[in-house]
Amino acid sequence: MAFDRFKPPGYYIRRKLKRNKPALFGLVVIALAFIISLLGYAIMPDHTPDANDGAVQIQKQGPGFESIFLKIRKNRVIQSANFFEHMVYGQESEFIIVPITSYQLNPPMVRVAVFGKADYYKDYDLLDVVKALKSSNYELGYNGIGEEIYTYTNLYGQQESISQPKLIEEFETGSLEQRSYWLGTDKMGRDMLSRLLYGTRISLSIGFISVLISMFLGMSLGSLAGFFGGKVDMLILWFMSVIWSIPGIILVISISMALQSRGVWVAFVAVGLTMWVEVARVMRGQIMSIKEKLFVEAARAFGVKNFRIVFVHILPNIAGPLIVIATANFAGAILLEAGLSFLGLGVQPPSPSWGVMIYEGFQAIGTKNSLHLILFPALAICILVLAFNLLGNGLRDAYDPKTNADK
Q1: CA nearest 63: which of 379, 382, 386, 381?
Q2: pLDDT at 407 (0 to 100)
Q3: Could you tell me if 182 and 64 are in contact, meaning their C-beta atoms sit under 8 angstroms apart?
Q4: What is the mean pLDDT of residues 19-40?
Q5: For residue 391, what is the enclosing H or E element?
Q6: At 95, is the secondary structure helix, strand, or coil?
Q7: Which residue(s) pair with 160 in the sheet?
Q8: How many other CB atoms are there within 10 angstroms of residue 221's CB atom?
Q9: Is residue 63 a contact partner of residue 184, using CB atoms and an 8 Å limit?
Q10: Which has the closest alpha carbon to 194: 181, 206, 207?
């Protein structure tokens, strides 16, 4: 049929977006970032909460650093997390790690050469390294074939015994580990790669919640101003002008001081409350250009309520510009959150926000092996913000009917 050649507007929007290579690149990067933030601890080398498992002896080691660790079991019960809890919240380590260069077994002790300290050796009780003990006291005895037997009390108050050969075997298989740090370590000896991956979750979470807050406020106030006009429009415009005249960082500082708190949720609210004005202006302008259309007049004639007219009949017709500005606000929220965290007003340590990581690297400027502390989180911010900007430009071109679909 002749009508088969006519397509809905969404078809041409998708067609133009698919042919925009930079926008597709941005979309792929954003999708990859969302997958990383969703999987979280499940794909991080360091599965501990906030990727906070480090040792100061290996601080500021460069990319590709490798070391052997002595894993000393903690003398307390560690709750095991299921897969979902592990993916979202992480799993506390059962061990305290000590970087070493060599070790020597001399039961009941083990002597290790501590990394970074020449000719410095430290002795550990072999049983205390391998087993979680309720008490450091234990008894030594012998079995029928002359092997030494260690009798100890576990964390649950039960008496257990283990032979010396078995204890040495468990030590060599479970208490020694070689780790590779692909992106090096920070100034606390923590894995940079794990903290960068977790920082992706924090940045996207704050960006997402902030955009939701800004879209809700902006759409609500903008629709009131654009649809009703008159004094309502003048009042809301005056309020928007006042908010827009205040620098964003000053507004965020004021909000943080008013809430008397600092942290992730404050960053959600503060960033969201500074980005709604642009949404409101776009919403107001779009509604003012559409509210006189015939389909709006018809809805009024049928007695449809104003709320339904705005959000059911008008809003779907201005979804394009709102999607574009939401994408742009996402990039702005990531930058603003990084700046707040750098100033100490956003996410607080030890949570690995990219802004916090840059601040820690900034403090180490001028010291040995400090370049990667700033370089990697800065690159992460640049790449993610660029991806959102490229996608936003692509969406703007795709929704613009003046652009050629065949380009």
Answers
A1: 379
A2: 47
A3: yes
A4: 93
A5: helix 371-399
A6: strand
A7: 152
A8: 23
A9: yes
A10: 181
Closest by CA to 239, choosing from 270, 195, 200, 280, is: 280
Confidence of residue 169 (pLDDT cuts 50, 70, 90): very high
Of the two residues 310 and 263, the one the predictor is more confident about is 310
Q: Which long-range contacts (CB under 8 A, 24 or more apart) does 367-371 make?
A: 367/60, 368/60, 369/60, 369/61, 369/62, 369/184, 370/60
Would the pTM count as exceeding 0.90? Answer: no
Domain boundaries, the chain: 8-35+192-399, 66-181
DSSP 154: B
d(C-alpha 257, C-alpha 157), whole Å = 49
What pLDDT does 5 receive?
A: 64
Question: What element of type H or E holds 148?
Answer: strand 148-153
Contact present, 351 and 202 (Cβ < 8 Å): yes
Among candidates 343, 330, 323, which has minimal Cα distance to 400?
Answer: 323
The residue whose two tokens read 């809700």 is: 216
Q: What CATH class is the domain 8-35+192-399?
A: mainly alpha
Q: How far apart are the first and last CA of the chain?
A: 27
Report the C-alpha gap between 325 and 281 in whole angstroms.
Answer: 11
User: What is the b/e burial string over 122-154, where b = at least 16 CB atoms within 10 angstroms of the residue's CB?
Assistant: eebbbbbbbbbbeeeebeeeeeeeeeeebebbe
Q: What is the distance between the alpha carbons of residues 235 and 241, in angstroms, rounded to a whole number? A: 10
Helix (H, G, I), strand (E, B) or coil at 267: helix
The number of CA neighbours under 13 Å toward the Cβ of 97 is 24
Task: For residue 102, give both structure tokens.
Answer: 């060599």
Asked if 282 and 223 touch (Cβ cutoff 8 Å), the reply is no
Q: Measure Cα distances from 184 to 67, 226, 368 in Å.
A: 11, 53, 13
Helix/strand/coil for 185: strand
Distance CA 273, CA 286 (A): 22
Query: Which of 329, 323, 347 lies closest to 248, judged by CA?
Result: 329
Residue with tokens 């601890």: 41
Instruction: Choose among 294, 303, 320: nearest CA to 403.
Output: 320
- Judged against a pLDDT cut of 60, whether residue 4 lies above it is answered with no
